[in-house]
Amino acid sequence: MQFITHTSTVEGAIQRIDFVLGADASGALWRPDGGTEPVALLLVALGGGQHVDTPGVAARAHRFAEHGYAVAALNNPGQGGRPQTDADISAIAAIRNPAATLQQRGTAIENYNAVVAPRALPEWAALLDVLAARYPEIAHKPIGFYGVSLGAVIGLHLLAAEPRITAARLGLIGGEHLLQAAQRIRVPVEFVMQWDDELISRESSLRLFDALGSTEKSLHASPGGHTDVPVHERDSALRFFDRTLRDAGAS
User: Fold this and answer.
1) Residue 227 DSSP symbol
2) Three-state DSSP class for residue 20
3) Which is deepest, 12, 13, 31, 102, by most CB within 10 Å?
4) Residue-level pLDDT at 5
5) What average pLDDT does this structure show over 136-163?
6) What is the mean pLDDT of the chain?
7) Which helix H or strand E contains 110, and what residues bound it?
8) Any residues with CB less than 8 A from the CB of 175 and at least 6 apart, and which?
């Protein structure tokens, strides 16, 4: 797979490159402009229903790029304007069903995430190959992963299979079906959860954190629901990646 189209714009000190990988895997790459060499590469997997132009996603990528990182994001299969299968349409309808209880909605999201994640994995692996070949200044840099909710489900499976990724910020997930992948992870992990998450049970998130095979892992739990992650966690993510990627790349 390789880029078949791409456009480049400059937003202040940040260059953004929009691309299509293969047939329809659309995404974006943010990087410091002006010849500055990135300190590391961050892969940002999106939550359900998001796309690379979702304000929170674009702002997070821009913030990481301002701190010296190259940041790559892919729209998830069936989302972000990508073609949808009948299964995608049916699953999304179940998630959005106004008559569904929170428990039913949580189950529908968990089931859909379990289907979408395997479809995304080969695209992320291919993107890593393409970025390494196209951008020599990125090829030998440390690689980190950021993903919550659906992005974290993708991340668990990708981390279990992809040795090039050396640190990860994950969270807002749980489920017995994820425990096996979690046990295979060995890289440093910062895990975030919401203590009052209405979609993911507290016990399920704690079991998943406990199952992580990493010898270096930390748990960040905050009060509030699924979308109430506090703003200060953004700074925590930067500190985590600076320690595990920036410092590692400089040593």
Assistant:
1) T
2) strand
3) 31
4) 61
5) 94
6) 90
7) helix 102-134
8) 110, 114, 200, 204, 208
Among 167, 134, 147, 160, which Cα is nearest to 40's? 167
pLDDT in tens, 115-141: 888 889 999 999 999 999 988 889 889
pLDDT at 4 over 70: no
In the chain, the amino acid numbered 28 is A
What b/e readout covers 225-243, taking b as 16+ CB neighbours within 10 angstroms?
Answer: ebeebeeebeeebbebbbe
Give the integer Cα–Cα distance in Å for 212 and 201.
17
pLDDT score at 8: 72
Phi, psi of 5 (to 5 degrees): -145, 150
* Strand, helix or coil for residue 46: coil
Residue of 128, 17, 131, 149 lying closest to 79 (CA atoms): 149
- Contact indicator for 166, 244 with CB cutoff of 8 Å: yes
Residue 41 structure tokens? 């590469």
Instruction: Report how far Cα 170 is from the mean position of its chain's Cα atoms.
Output: 8
Confidence of residue 2 (pLDDT cuts 50, 70, 90): low
Would you state the pLDDT for residue 251? 47
User: Is the distance from CB of 15 to CB of 66 less than 8 angstroms?
Assistant: no
Task: For residue 225, name the pLDDT band (cuts at 50, 70, 90).
Answer: very high
- Whole-angstrom Cα distance, residue 27 to residue 33? 19
Strand order in the sheet with 14-21: 3-11, 14-21, 25-32, 69-74, 40-45, 143-148, 165-171, 189-194, 217-222
